[in-house]
Specification:
The structure is a homotetramer. With about 350 residues, chain A is α/β, with parallel strands linked by helices. Helices cover about 30% and strands about 20% of the residues of chain A. Chain A is built from eleven helices and 15 strands. In chain A, helix 6 links the parallel strand 5 and strand 6. In chain A, helix 1 crosses helix 11, helix 6 packs parallel to helix 11 and helix 7 runs parallel beside helix 9. At the A-C interface, strand 9, strand 10, strand 11, strand 12 and strand 15 of A face strand 9, strand 10, strand 11, strand 12 and strand 15 of C. Chains A, B, C, D: Its EC number is 1.2.1.38. Chains A, B, C, D: It is found in: Cytoplasm. Chains A, B, C, D: This is N-acetyl-gamma-glutamyl-phosphate reductase. Chains A, B, C, D: Catalyzes the NADPH-dependent reduction of N-acetyl-5-glutamyl phosphate to yield N-acetyl-L-glutamate 5-semialdehyde.
Chain lengths: ~350, ~350, ~350, ~350
Amino acid sequence: MGNGTAAGAAKVRVGIVGGTGYTGVELLRLLAQHPHAELTAITSRKEDGMPVADMFANLRGKVDLAFSAPEKARLDQCDVVFFATPHGVAMAQAQELLAAGVRIIDLAADFRLKNLAAFEKWYRIPHTCPAILEESAYGLVEINREAIRNARVVGNPGCYPTTVLLGLAPLLEGRAGGQPLVDASTLIADCKSGVTGAGRKPEIHILFSEASDNFKAYGVMGHRHHPEIVEHLERLHGGPVGLTFVPHLTPMVRGMHSTLYARIAPEARGVDFQALYEQRYANEPFVDVMPPGSTPETRSVRASNVLRIAVHRPDNGDQLVVLVVQDNLVKGASGQAVQNMNLMFGLPEDAGLGQVAVLP
Amino acid sequence: MGNGTAAGAAKVRVGIVGGTGYTGVELLRLLAQHPHAELTAITSRKEDGMPVADMFANLRGKVDLAFSAPEKARLDQCDVVFFATPHGVAMAQAQELLAAGVRIIDLAADFRLKNLAAFEKWYRIPHTCPAILEESAYGLVEINREAIRNARVVGNPGCYPTTVLLGLAPLLEGRAGGQPLVDASTLIADCKSGVTGAGRKPEIHILFSEASDNFKAYGVMGHRHHPEIVEHLERLHGGPVGLTFVPHLTPMVRGMHSTLYARIAPEARGVDFQALYEQRYANEPFVDVMPPGSTPETRSVRASNVLRIAVHRPDNGDQLVVLVVQDNLVKGASGQAVQNMNLMFGLPEDAGLGQVAVLP
Amino acid sequence: MGNGTAAGAAKVRVGIVGGTGYTGVELLRLLAQHPHAELTAITSRKEDGMPVADMFANLRGKVDLAFSAPEKARLDQCDVVFFATPHGVAMAQAQELLAAGVRIIDLAADFRLKNLAAFEKWYRIPHTCPAILEESAYGLVEINREAIRNARVVGNPGCYPTTVLLGLAPLLEGRAGGQPLVDASTLIADCKSGVTGAGRKPEIHILFSEASDNFKAYGVMGHRHHPEIVEHLERLHGGPVGLTFVPHLTPMVRGMHSTLYARIAPEARGVDFQALYEQRYANEPFVDVMPPGSTPETRSVRASNVLRIAVHRPDNGDQLVVLVVQDNLVKGASGQAVQNMNLMFGLPEDAGLGQVAVLP
Amino acid sequence: MGNGTAAGAAKVRVGIVGGTGYTGVELLRLLAQHPHAELTAITSRKEDGMPVADMFANLRGKVDLAFSAPEKARLDQCDVVFFATPHGVAMAQAQELLAAGVRIIDLAADFRLKNLAAFEKWYRIPHTCPAILEESAYGLVEINREAIRNARVVGNPGCYPTTVLLGLAPLLEGRAGGQPLVDASTLIADCKSGVTGAGRKPEIHILFSEASDNFKAYGVMGHRHHPEIVEHLERLHGGPVGLTFVPHLTPMVRGMHSTLYARIAPEARGVDFQALYEQRYANEPFVDVMPPGSTPETRSVRASNVLRIAVHRPDNGDQLVVLVVQDNLVKGASGQAVQNMNLMFGLPEDAGLGQVAVLP
């Protein structure tokens, strides 16, 4: 139950709370192949006793575990527990698990926003453990690696924020002659998500017959990921940020494509933005800055933890266009969560995450 | 409110019960363009007061009607009422509407099976008006035209039965030297349906994220359309019929493809099956027997009331393979219902049904 | 062969050059149902003699015409000829047809750009009839209705330009206190197209196995529709315009969704943009300004000539977000071409274009 | 270059001829992760010098190899060469490679059919090395394991044959009281394939805009996989077999679903078919016989080498219905090829093939 299990040593004992959604089954797919993790418990009150492979046939012969009711699962004997649950579940159990020495990775929003008021406004529930929130680390490895290493609680980022933050980080962190590289007050994120981003819920608008051969925006007047993105952009930038965020639903199962627009500041017209991105991510195992002129495809990262970025400056003008793709269920959710686990337990950061993307 | 409105005379006043599903919105699309029909009421208790175009944006500017609660809608002042409802609704209201002189077209199963026991076994509700069932007509125009013309109540066929019955009718009706053309005891219908066939219900298994890029069979051990198909095949054949029926779900919105297998009887080896089909359907406005060697595509009938058939006899052997395609929401449901209405009111059979299929 | 055929009079005799692509088959679908048009010839050298319904099975029983080699088709006896051809074909035949009194609607780019240099740069062919280009009318009815009425030659707009121009027209035409409503130098059009927008060509990148379950940008560094959009935006605006245009390919057959971003000018902060759009398009039969808060879906216009617009101003700030959807093959191509024909021949503008969109 | 490289010893040196199609990129995906294989050469005359990751972006950072022209690649220094090429290529190079001690796995048809006449009829090329064909092994491991182990040349099965043969093998091999279990003269295989089955070729009929939201049969009058299936069914059965085979194209990228129909022989009515299948495949690592009543989904095997089977006997009658799913690019092609390589080189049969299927 201790912190820090070295690679090669005993396996990390893993529990999953709420394994019947897409981030749950994706955690199972990744952890079933992880060389240093041992799945020990998965909870679902409703499905108590059902083998997970009965619900998700891809796991037949790969995962022997059955769902168990929360009170039966011995989560306190795990090294780490992933919450693949609706918002609000992790914070209700965090205190008790931490007391038992268990570390927590929440794939919902309970530990994403340091700003309590914003959390309560957007998620419409009171936050029940602000002290734990205070100590928790935001689980976007590429901008917060050291804090995550030692964190007892990690808030795994939302799918949209992962793409927008990694796509804009080099621009907001950077300075040219002491001045910002871009106008941080007029940023735009035009994002397109596959339908799994909406979860595995019985709702009409995400039926095949509604979402197939169809494209639409949604949440233009407000989306929960907006405050999350802005909070962390402002941290990177060291000042206020203005962002217009328009998410869209695109008829594919997995995948997210974010098209980001930033106006280059006059002082930064001479910057080599391609080089800026390449240097920023040179040592990142899961961020691929593509060659100039590239237009990354979502399928190039399907079922893998890689996120790809391409930087464009049309006509060498003042408008930067940054293209970012990821698999929303992997780098945008469960893969990133495993990456966090690896860091937290001193494992190689890419352990269990070496899959080649499935193309076609 | 009388029976029989001649073309050119006053429009047929149409009511729809339950317009929030796919057969409902498809009825609205077709009737909004129908030259001899006037939409007068559409009911939905839940959506009382909401303009139908607020739910289905394709109707904006085309249909001004709002949903109204059943008790407010003056269905008794309609000439005909379509039931685009779950099974059991039409039979609950049939007596009263008939008494008011209103004719009924039920798109659910209440009036499809003459065999009461089979109905109650498969739909798990008692039939509350067997006398009306007795007088009702099965609404498959191409095999029951005359009865429909004068019927007060029509049971609109299921989508699978429409393809299987029209695909096998020439074989089961026909005789060669007084003998059947095929072995009626070993018929097989391997059917593939688009996902709208499962309706507009909030259920996990028909989510985009479940049904897209996926293919599966279902209902192999029993499906409600099986007794409906067999009952009418036996009527056509004049004797018992054995049918193996395997429905599949295919990742497309609309469309149904049935691949039908029948063993040619020894006496019928000399029959020209292509000619048999062409003659059988020569005068049918909505059945297209394609040239020899054709493989009809579902998109060739998308959004149209046409059903296409191709007849194959591989290697000139004893196995016939009949391919049938339709749009499950048009010829397999709402278009066929309008075709029935046209017949019942003495209108041209193709009134309002002349749309060219949308390809691509 | 004269100009101006009144409704009710003799039908307009229509020829189509190049009917084997998607705009061709869509023209056939629409014209087969048009009350005032008569299809008289369709050319394809390669398919000479083949019934069009053999290539496009949706036309079986609806269109009897066969393709004929160009030299056999008597296009000079048509009232109007549509060119559904690659760029450069219409201009090669325009002189001769005009001399015979035939009017021309080109669905390719030959008559879209008045700027000859831009045309030759982007299409890499010399323009062979600049005088005809000079007299031709740009066929975007809602901004050029009067010129089209009397034009002998109409350049039918590109699909992207149709959405971007109609989506931005009210902003660029308008003034507040004599000042522009938006910063015309920082416009952004983030556009998503269904795959039919790429045409019916045997190319790897638009195979089902490449484009399905995938999303990507393309043409970020330059796209032929960019100069077309800018030329006409500048005309509307009466001054220079700066536009960043990023097209994307989305895995659907038909449909286009453009998300447009414009910064509100300080003088225009008090403008009611919803009202502005509603008034601008109040009398347009094919432009639907949706209620505040709407997010239009592409399927709501599938197979119809309607274009829908929604105007958003998140947090009542300075960034306008305009959402526009159309069917790229109808309002974005063949439907708009028929709308132009209707205008040119004095027919009701919506003749043959009253189809309700196919949803689902 | 020797035969038989034990696990743990030096890696198997692998060459690939023709890596620009879907079976090629899938081989690369699998071999890049294979613990005992080393990719040493991949040929493409047309793409000589291009890194494979420039063509298939999923391989960025995973495969460093570049395509090389055939004459430059030192294929004679490989232990095994995979041919992911059109039919006819492998047989042209087989003699020379075998002479150099290189073993061959052909993913095309050159070594699938022992019947030379059938090969030449269906593939329309003469077979240039009948002696090698004679010694080659048909690479369907589950029915031919021992022969494959020692083969110098393996003909990797077609995708359809893999499902039909494994789906019917227990029925054709079995006997009840010395009699066949089913009527081998009236077998039916109704098969549905994802579009990658048609390859990566620039052809109109497999464009997204043609194949999406569409379903059709093809090849009803004859398909190249028919003689391959029949040849091997007859070997299993020890006698003549009659098979009706109808392939269909379904709008998904990967996946194949075969629905197989067999009439139970009177002597076999008492057989427990579920047990028959379970016993037949009890020790097969890649064949999963599902519980009674199952309907396997193609996505449950997406990107994995597992093939799943479910056996149905509706109403306990005489018609068996066997459902089989596989990923056509893995068990139906490249995964099976790697499985063959593992066997041929004494590696664990599942080395490099342990991927959990990607669901959703």
